[in-house]
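This part of the workshop introduces the protein records we will be handling. Getting from the letters to the tokens is the skill we practise here. An example says more than a description, so a record of this kind follows:
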Amino acid sequence: MEEVLSGYLANPVFLFLLVCWSMIWKGIGLWRAAKNDQQVWYVGMLLLNFFGVLEISYLVFFQKKDRWWEKIEKKIKL
């Protein structure tokens, strides 16, 4: 298992895609946290990097306004 992981991490294309994935979610999460005036979430997302996991969990469950899952539920019910 360790050999497979080190093989992926040595691949520059995989690393590039991983960085892009993380930066996209980080940007969206930081923007929404700043817009919703949630400084703790903003600082946490700014300092911690978990490849988008923290940002995605914030966007789906913890932001104050316009939660994505509420928008999806409204569209499905219509």
In short: Helices lie at 2-10, 12-35, 39-47, 53-62, 68-77.
